[in-house]
Write a structure and sequence with these properties.
The complex is a heterodimer of chains A (289) and B (315). Chain A is of the alpha/beta class and 289 residues long. The relative contact order of chain A is 0.19. Chain A has a ten-stranded mixed β-sheet, sandwiched between helices. In chain A, helix 4 runs parallel beside helix 7 (179-191). Chain A has eleven helices and ten strands. Chain B is built from 13 helices and no strands. With 315 residues, chain B is mainly alpha-helical. The chains are: A alpha/beta (289), B mainly alpha (315). Chains A and B meet through helix 3, helix 4 and helix 7 of A and helix 8 and helix 9 of B.
């Protein structure tokens, strides 16, 4: 391993983390973050995949998580709506709060968490059902009281900028759509249950540039009503769409194990133009990763 | 490193030439084709063997009588050749078997695929599949001498199940086909991509909702195939119904608490007695056999169509 990586690694992390947080707080002054991570570590069995992550998620803002592969950004994202619960042996320490409430407290129902904090995945994963049923799925399983399911489906599809393309074929399978349309269907499906926060795990990585542009536009549109957290390996994307950016990297410890680590968190503009940490600078200028 | 590269380089020229035949390859091919042909030939052979006596049968008995007659008494003095009693008994037993096997099999499959942790699944699945290896004669005897006495004892009313009856045969047969339905359904549920489950969980589904609303529909083609295969096995099953199902065939028995001969039970019974080759009784066995063959053939065709219809493409 490169010795310089080792020496630059450890000391600056916590400093950068804390420093960055205060920068973020200063910019949005009084606004209480809707979610807050404090000292969050995620373990798979005995393996600590991500260490000691602290950052806020600001309301109705887009927060991006960037960093090289294996830096734990997706792992952290999945800890925000307890999707990690589905992986046997996964465990979260530290605290993740949502409106001040600890998401991992004993009496918290993960189903209720996921109703408020939805998720869109890397690969579009519509159900093998009709477009209509894909969107209606969430409201149905959560027992939402709706006066008209048709209206709700239409609204969700309109909000996901898909309505005009599918309004004449709501009964056809969601799988018959193109990749970009499928991903917008998945977004429509997610917003149909009226969550407060939408987590997006590399939502454009399986899409072509045109479809990607559409999703990015949509994200900016959705940020008027929703808090969005997006994981992306595409720095330009983070720079284009997000208000806040968290840069993660992987560091190698004495046992040669890789651990994900938050290096820097700040307003997107600041992080990309004036990063505090050398590793952030190296990454965004393309010297690394 | 470098030596192996240069070796490969110099050997490449000769290796590419077509000179070296591989006799093993062509021999293996011939053997494999032969192996495949044996089953094709067997099927053709069965059809031919069935057709000739069946034609002989229908030269003496009209098809209309065969299909619509409500009494089947080839061994009686007063002979009648209406196949409906046999068909009715077969349907009754199959119906009972499915009523047992579909819920149990699907339930086991959902449990194994969605609820059981990997270690439990690893132990349980082979045990369930082991049930499929129990000889059917054992099921027959267990049904007749263990299950039926219990059923008779616990029956709430006076006119309980007979010594041999369709209900107990159906129950035993249902237990017999549980592993078939469970195993194939579980395979098909396990093949449902993880991403679909995650999508459903992310929409605030409970485990039960993920199982019944996403996984089961997505695995429907496999589940339908499993059930149709179960039906095929039930229709063709012989030993259990011969031992525990009864032999009445002179009238249509609709009460499952009575015994009645299914198509297969009739064939097994009459074939074990001595009937003269070429006689009408002998031919009647083949006529019933041909009908059985047609039914299972149709079931398989339906199964293939259903599987195509329900097949979902995930990507």
């Amino acid at each position: 391993m490169n010795p310089t990586t080792d020496t630059t690694n450890r000391p600056s992390v916590s400093v950068a983390g804390v420093g960055a947080q205060s920068t973020g707080a200063r910019t949005s002054e009084a606004a209480d973050p809707v979610m807050k991570l404090s000292g969050v570590s995620v373990f798979y069995g005995a393996y600590e995949a991500v260490r000691d992550t602290s950052m806020p998620i600001q309301e109705k803002q887009i927060t991006a998580m960037i960093g090289p592969s294996g830096c734990g950004k997706s792992t952290i994202l999945r800890s925000l709506n307890r999707m990690n619960d589905l992986i046997p042996g996964a465990r979260v320490s530290g605290s993740v709060t949502y409106h001040g409430q600890d998401l991992y407290a004993k009496d918290v129902d993960p189903i209720e968490v996921r109703r408020r904090i939805g998720m869109v995945f890397q690969k579009p994963n519509p159900f093998p059902k009709s477009i209509y049923d894909n969107v209606a799925y969430g409201p149905r399983v959560t027992g939402m009281q709706v006066s008209s399911m048709d209206d709700l489906v239409e609204k969700a599809l309109r909000d996901a900028a898909l309505w005009d393309e599918v309004k004449d074929k709501l009964k056809t399978s969601g799988l018959a759509l193109s990749g970009g349309q499928q991903q917008r269907l998945c977004i429509a499906r997610t917003i149909a249950v009226r969550p407060e926060i939408i987590l997006m795990d590399e939502p454009c990585s399986a899409l072509d540039p045109i479809a990607t542009a559409k999703i990015e536009d949509l994200m900016s549109e959705l940020a008027n009503d929703y808090t969005i957290v997006i994981v992306t390996h595409n720095m330009q994307q983070a720079a284009r769409v997000s208000h806040y950016t968290a840069f993660f990297t992987a560091e190698v410890d004495e046992q040669q194990e890789r651990h994900g680590r938050l290096v820097e968190f700040s307003q997107t503009g600041k992080l990309f133009t004036n990063p505090v940490d050398k590793r952030t600078e190296d990454y965004i200028t393309g010297r690394f990763g | 490193m470098s030596t192996s590269t240069s070796n490969a380089g110099s050997a490449a020229g000769s290796a590419l030439r077509r000179g070296r035949r591989r006799p093993v390859d062509s021999t293996v091919k011939v053997l494999l084709v032969a192996a495949a042909l044996v089953s094709v030939a067997t099927t053709v052979g069965i059809v031919i063997a069935l057709v000739q006596p069946t034609i002989g049968f229908f030269q003496q008995v009209s098809i209309v009588e065969f299909i619509t007659g409500t009494s089947w008494t080839p061994t009686f003095a007063q002979k009648a050749y209406g196949v409906l009693p046999l068909v009715a008994a077969t349907l009754t037993v199959t119906g009972v078997a499915l009523a047992i096997a579909v819920p149990l099999g699907l339930g086991s499959a959902i449990y194994l695929s969605e609820y059981a942790n990997p270690r439990t699944r690893k132990v349980l699945k082979p045990i369930i599949e082991l049930l499929a290896g129990v000889p059917t004669v054992v099921y027959g005897f267990v049904a007749l001498f263990a299950l039926n006495p219990l059923l008779q004892k616990w029956w709430p009313t006076d006119n309980g199940p007979a010594f041999q009856n369709l209900l107990i045969a159906g129950i035993a047969m249902g237990i017999m086909i549980v592993p078939t339905i469970a195993s194939i359904s579980e395979d098909s549920m396990a093949a449902v991509p993880r991403s679909l489950r995650e999508g459903a969980y992310a929409l605030a589904s409970t485990k039960m909702q993920v199982s019944t609303r996403v996984v089961v529909p997505a695995a429907m083609s496999g589940i339908v195939a499993a059930v149709v295969l179960g039906i095929s096995r039930a229709v063709g099953e012989t030993m259990i119904v011969t031992i525990a199902g009864g032999l009445t065939s002179d009238r249509i028995v609709l009460n499952p608490l009575e015994g009645a001969a299914t198509m297969t039970a009739f064939i097994a019974n009459i074939s074990s007695g001595d009937i003269p080759v070429g006689s009408l009784d002998y031919d009647s066995v083949f006529a019933v056999g041909a009908l059985l063959f047609l039914i299972t053939f149709a079931l398989n065709a339906v199964s293939i169509r259903m599987v195509r219809r329900f097949r979902e493409v995930y990507e």
